[in-house]
């Protein structure tokens, strides 16, 4: 394999296998260290294993890097990856960095990094794919690209202190689900995280924020200007936005609510009136609501929308007009699976689940949990004292409150599960990191 060259941006997302062909995880980054006498040396890979945990795999454990896959010795430490002093992640920290040409011909931004295997079997950074600044004022113009040797580039005081472009890094996050994007953002250095968050589209950043702890949400949003924060909050689910607002001082909360779209702000204000641990405090105000005269075909058309969360697409809720919470009198629930068993022209009013009662807006978490568990549901309707539908509590809302506050970052309970998995596959080692 000596002399083999691999581009890191293309390596991201590649599957990692053990020697017998069992899948271990996916490559998420490459870790290098700088050297005074040469180009940076690769010391390992950041690999995402089942459970969304990111672990360090020493490059000495990698036996092959081929077309779309990486083969390891099968011995992987499941301790969560944490960068050590002097280590640099290529995707998270190098892509987008601006460097200067040593010959004085200007600057360029790193768009990709090539690593090459030396005769010794070790991997070094050898080439960079860079883009020079554009020379045209046209908004469609782009700077020229070229391959350069690592030795031909240098970090100057000016380039080291300049803001790093986040465009290339964001491109590597395109295929990540919101939970994975949230994890990736939180693992970035703080300055880099702020830069990437500033460049992410509002909807994409909102999706990632919904997967973070409230403390992390607040810290990240406070790094953005208020107008941008309001735009992102407009894109969040009202119940998630309300949970975030509950962490803010009242003056800051009111200021942001004034900046939000009135309709979105109204939903959040309504949720803030309920106790945090009640059905009202847990619910989302954006379920699929229809009239009893609507047909199965119309309902299926609504729940197949891509932006609709799976839990909210599992049922539609029938009410009298108006059809926005708080609605007219609640009539009942029609489950997706039942709709599939009836012709498209069937009226929804005849398909109502007669055995399912809604929960009251002041119901406790325990009461809502029992309802979900007793009837094998993923969502349950919430009504007020007048019998109007005000929202829906979904199973993920309940789990977020029942699990420990730091469940997304826990290294304790879930490590036992991974040890069980390791014992079954024989592919994971619980030893020191390297």
TrEMBL record:
Would you name any one GO CC term?
membrane
**InterPro entries from the entry?**
CBS_dom, CBS_dom_sf, Mg_transptr_MgtE_intracell_dom, MgtE_N_sf, MgtE_transporter, SH3_actinomycetes
Looking at the record's lineage, which domain of life comes first? Bacteria
Q: Does the keyword field hold Oxidoreductase? A: no
Per its UniProt record, what SUPFAM superfamilies does this chain match?
CBS-domain pair, MgtE N-terminal domain-like
Q: Which UniProt keywords apply?
A: CBS domain
* Keyword check for Nucleotide-binding: no
Give this protein's Gene Ontology molecular function annotations. magnesium ion transmembrane transporter activity
Output the SMART domains linked to this UniProt entry. Answer: CBS, MgtE_N
Instruction: Name the CDD domains on file.
Output: CBS_pair_Mg_transporter
Q: Which residues form the CBS domain?
A: 352-415
Query: Gene3D superfamilies of this UniProt entry?
Result: CBS-domain, MgtE N-terminal domain-like
**Could you identify this protein by its name?**
Magnesium transporter
Q: Which organism is it from?
A: Gryllotalpicola protaetiae
